[in-house]
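Summary of Year 1 activities. Much of the first year was spent building the evaluation harness for sequence design. The harness presents a backbone, in tokenized form, and records the residue chosen at every position. We chose the following record to illustrate the format because it has been used consistently in internal testing since the harness was completed.
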């Protein structure tokens, strides 16, 4: 049975699985697409989507602990409205929607990885920069695959084409600038408000990011998103719900099981989104559709996690 202390063990196991995939690639030349898709589906289905399927419970518990009223109807209404509006923007404004997705993902990844940092301007800027480093590392180290997905998502936008051509030449420069800014600002932030990151945490994260830079895009994204980010989010959520004496957070496995109903609902939502997308007359392309789906459920989830992490950093 999984216990609270085993979250880090899970991320190490995920790193080991990533290493096995990397070894397969080295010895066989490539990882079969069926294996890539299977691994991606397992990681997204087992942890990626479930870690956001507890948002309504987090919001309810937070409201109750603050002595506020909570309406599940109002919460879900706002949640679904955000999803609908962002879905519409992907149809009519794909380029802008992609930029929004990259920005919220950078913030969300950085906020989770540096969740122990204080809620200060310098640390918040460091969070955004760190999340940007993670995204750039995953996307720019798979430039051809990323370009293909970006052009398909933006429906062959001329601006997107010019941007990717520009990045092909200048990607190392931009990565170096963002990385330099992060280390400089994080050093200043840490001098004023120090955080403690264990060597085990740092080595685990670096190992996963290294493997992400070496694996194909699909398993690379799945490894970080499902194998690291989602697990660390589960750890934050578990601590909050466990401390609040939520019965469903008695054990991490119990909490995970309580995330399954909303996970299945999200799966049906993806099928419905695919149906609507086809109905618009646009070509149905599985890979862009998956990333768009993840983006539209990330937007409202970001708000919930942002409030939760801010709450914990102020305690």
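For this record, the design step produced the sequence shown next.
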């Amino acid at each position: 049975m999984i216990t609270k202390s085993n979250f880090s063990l899970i991320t190490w196991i995920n790193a080991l699985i990533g290493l096995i995939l990397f070894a397969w690639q080295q010895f066989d030349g490539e990882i079969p697409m069926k294996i890539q898709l299977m691994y991606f589906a397992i990681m997204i289905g087992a942890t990626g989507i479930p870690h956001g399927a507890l948002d309504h419970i987090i919001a309810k518990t937070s409201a109750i602990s603050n002595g506020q009223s909570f309406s599940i109807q109002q919460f879900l209404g706002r949640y679904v409205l955000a999803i609908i509006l962002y879905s519409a923007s992907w149809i009519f404004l794909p380029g802008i929607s992609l930029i929004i997705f990259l920005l919220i993902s950078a913030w969300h990844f950085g906020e989770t990885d540096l969740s122990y940092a204080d809620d200060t301007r310098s640390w918040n800027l460091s969070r955004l920069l760190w999340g940007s480093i993670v995204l750039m590392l995953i996307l720019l180290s798979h430039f051809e695959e990323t370009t293909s997905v970006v052009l398909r998502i933006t429906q062959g936008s001329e601006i997107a084409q010019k941007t990717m051509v520009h990045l092909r030449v200048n990607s190392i420069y931009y990565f170096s600038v963002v990385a330099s800014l992060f280390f400089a600002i994080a050093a200043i932030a840490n001098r004023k408000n120090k955080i403690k990151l264990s060597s085990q945490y740092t080595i685990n994260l670096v190992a996963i990011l290294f493997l992400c830079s070496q694996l194909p895009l699909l398993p690379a994204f799945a490894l970080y998103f499902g194998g690291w980010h989602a697990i660390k989010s589960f750890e934050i959520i578990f601590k909050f719900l466990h401390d609040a004496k939520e019965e469903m957070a008695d054990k991490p496995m119990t909490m995970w099981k309580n995330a399954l109903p909303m996970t299945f609902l999200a799966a049906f939502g993806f099928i419905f989104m695919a149906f609507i997308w086809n109905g618009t007359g646009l070509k149905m392309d599985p890979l862009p559709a998956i990333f768009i789906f993840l983006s539209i459920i990330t937007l409202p989830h970001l708000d919930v996690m942002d409030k939760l992490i801010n709450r914990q950093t102020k305690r």
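The chain has a mean pLDDT of 88. Quantitative recovery figures across the full test set are reported in Table 2.
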